[in-house]
From TrEMBL:
Pfam families: DCC1-like. The lineage of its organism: Bacteria, Bacillati, Bacillota, Bacilli, Bacillales. This is DUF393 domain-containing protein. InterPro entries: DCC1-like, Thioredoxin-like_sf. It comes from Salinibacillus xinjiangensis. GO terms for molecular function: protein-disulfide reductase activity. SUPFAM superfamilies: Thioredoxin-like.
Amino acid sequence: MKKDILIVFYDGWCPLCQRAKQNIQKLDRRGQILFYSIREPTVFREYHLDGLHVEERIYSIRKRDGSSFSGIYTIVEIAKRIPRYRVFVPLLSMSIVLGFGQKVYDWIASKREIVPIGQCTEDGCPVHFDQK
């Protein structure tokens, strides 16, 4: 059986995001999910993440066909790959169809904390690396 690899870009400065990543990695027994922090300049450039609002929503790319997902759609893709989470796929999908899934995701994402202190302004914590 071929692995259906999902490359997930998460905020490495976010403790909530780091804990979620660790929990998912423990449950990903088939090694189908690869995590990269958007705060790493080489990752940001290599995957051409500029302009994709990756600092606002978790972002992912399905390696098999290059399809990309953001926010709640990435959560669905992760849930499809973790047996314990597959039971939530219909509920997550229904939340998208009913129009509140992405809104709930965005609300939760807006409440997350960012560390290290001093790296953000009142306008947020944008990711912007010089493209040299």
